[in-house]
Design goal:
The chain is an alpha+beta fold. The protein has 2 domains: 105 residues, Roll (Archaeosine Trna-guanine Transglycosylase, Chain: A, domain 4); 86 residues, no CATH class. The chain is built from 6 helices and 6 strands, in the order E-E-H-E-E-E-E-H-H-H-H-H. Strands 1, 2, 3, 4, 5 and 6 form a 6-stranded antiparallel beta sheet that branches. Helix 2 runs antiparallel to helix 3 and helix 2 runs parallel beside helix 6. The radius of gyration is 22 Å and the shape is globular. 23% of the residues are buried. It comes from Rufibacter roseus.
């Protein structure tokens, strides 16, 4: 079943459950946020990619208006809800300044992906250790989902968008695992190179070969 939703296209991917702070300055989106705040309604953030509106996006709940500026701009706090696919995009909703669209709600599946989760966890620990950001692993905890780490593994916007379109957790983790398998050796080699560069010019404690 389809329904209409106010839309706020942005050059980002927002995942279900993700919290996002946005600075609102355009008149049309100030109108959207004001209506959302007054009526308690949601809106959608479709991904603006390659100079066009992507078919997929995330429904957004307005958590609150954090600050209003004299010129009408505002800082707002939001959170991602569910994923949708746009069936019909309108550049301007009737009698409104902002875009809207007819959307179809999609339902992500939390299927059995335990072994992939364990593999991803191990590789994440290696990656964050190589980058000396182990604290991020502690912040994520053991029960992270693919959505929780997608912004923290060096994905491009295109890769983040591809992940948004996957409805099964096992498929999302497989994409993440493949990405980590590609970048981890490169990161580890780069870190080794950095250490060698740092040692250049310093006194070295070298052990001569025994022959």
């Amino acid at each position: 079943m389809s329904r209409f939703l106010p839309l706020f296209p942005l050059n980002i991917v927002v995942y279900p459950g993700e919290k996002l702070n946005i600075h609102i300055f355009e008149m049309r989106y100030r109108q959207l946020i004001t209506e959302s705040h007054t009526n308690g309604t949601t809106f959608g953030i479709p991904v603006y990619l390659n100079s066009g509106i992507g078919e997929y996006g995330t429904e957004i709940k307005l958590l609150g208006i954090e600050k209003k500026y004299p010129g009408g701009e505002m800082d707002v706090k939001t959170q991602g809800l569910g994923i949708f696919k746009i069936k019909d995009f309108q550049r301007q909703a009737p009698d409104r300044l902002y875009p809207s669209g007819e959307i179809e709600d999609l339902t992500p599946e939390q299927d059995n992906a335990e072994w992939q989760h364990l593999q991803v966890k191990e590789m994440l620990q290696e990656l964050y250790s190589a980058l000396s950001i182990q604290s991020l692993m502690l912040k994520l905890g053991d029960n992270f989902r693919s959505y929780d780490i997608a912004h923290h593994i060096g994905f491009t916007l295109e890769q983040e968008y591809a992940l948004l379109q996957c409805l099964k957790e096992s498929e999302r983790l497989e994409i993440i695992l493949s990405h980590l398998q590609q970048i981890l050796p490169v990161v580890q080699q780069t870190e080794k190179l950095k250490e060698r560069v740092k040692l250049n010019g310093h006194f070295k404690n070298l052990t001569p070969p025994n022959f």
